[in-house]
Amino acid sequence: MSNSYAAAGVDTEAGDRAVELMKAAVQRTHGPEVLGGVGGFAGLFDASALAAYKHPLLATSTDGVGTKVAIAQALDKHDTIGQDLVGMVVDDIVVVGAKPLFMTDYIACGRVVPERIATIVAGIARACSATGTALVGGETAEHPGLMGVDDYDVAGAAVGAVEADAVLGAERVRDGDVVLALASSGLHSNGYSLVRKILADAGLGYADHSDEFGGVVGEVLLEPTRLYTGPLVRVLATPALSGAIHSLSHVTGGGIAANLARVLPRGSWVEVDRSTWSPSPVFRVLSSIAGASLESSEATWNLGIGFFAVVSAAQAAAVTAAIEAEGIPTWQVGTVSTAPRSFDGFEQGAKGVDGGAVRLVGEYAAG
């Protein structure tokens, strides 16, 4: 009986091949601030640029992609899941007004298939480049016996920086501020446990072609998460819009109302007008298959809104124009009020944040 690592199911040579295959993609995210290249025990990032800040604060976030990876695995299509990871991690950092600096990733798998790992990391690297984030390190771990040979999961963490007096948040929000919605590209990376149950109950496979979905079901569901960081960093840096954006919200787990409530001050409230947009077809199709209303999934799916921006009413039109110039459809969905009222039927705060109150009103625009 062999007691070697290989006999236990861990192929270190495959891991080395994966690193070689991904190296070029990772290096393309490196500017002069990254030292040491790929393969070290730790990534090095020259933080001397922070000396230009008066009072720099570091922002950090960590996340994964969730059960969306099951669809990528089922279709053996792994080139978009990396963008989902970057979106889930880096787009949380810009919420506080921070510019991302660097990111690391972690891939756990049942078996290292070098080409598959390199494809996943190439997707991460492309999205890092698009958001101005250096991919400075990562880890691929084989877990034989714990995960199936073709199973994997991905996670990541990122760090950004922001001036202390430029941090965005609920404390900047004022009565009369305008709430802007920024369009999503689809489901992004939330609510896939519900998606998978709906499809399983309906007997639909990921490789099935569906006229309702407009193509192969799994390919439609793998539409990558829209990246907001680059556009928002540029808009925040526009001198004419200085101070116009008061808070931002990334619409992820918890849905629409809860994520907006997190970035509003206690005592304030917003009624989000459903009639201002039509949820994307993928949401309508899934709801129809499930025999449920769109409203019933508002706490699970983004329904077409990937981000909120709470902005000064006087500059709302200019902010909208600036974000739309970056290629992201943007529209007004409500106004912040501090007028006394009952909060029955409102979502108040979320994720431990004692924030404002939000509810959705009206009916969605026709699709």
Plain-language structure description:
Its main location: cytoplasm. Keywords: ATP-binding, Cytoplasm, Ligase, Nucleotide-binding, Purine biosynthesis. Pathway: Purine metabolism; IMP biosynthesis via de novo pathway; 5-amino-1-(5-phospho-D-ribosyl)imidazole from N(2)-formyl-N(1)-(5-phospho-D-ribosyl)glycinamide: step 2/2. The structure is a single chain. With 367 residues, the protein is an alpha+beta fold. The chain folds into 2 domains: 154 residues, 60s Ribosomal Protein L30, Chain: A; 192 residues, Alpha-Beta Complex (Phosphoribosyl-aminoimidazole Synthetase, Chain A, domain 2), CATH 3.90.650. Helices cover 29% and strands 25% of the residues. It is built from 10 helices and 15 strands. The protein has a 4-stranded mixed beta sheet, with helices on one face. Helix 1 packs parallel to helix 4 and helix 3 runs parallel beside helix 4. It is globular. It starts with 11 loop residues before the first helix and ends in a 6-residue tail after the last strand.
How would you summarize this macromolecular structure in one to three sentences?
This protein is of the alpha+beta class.
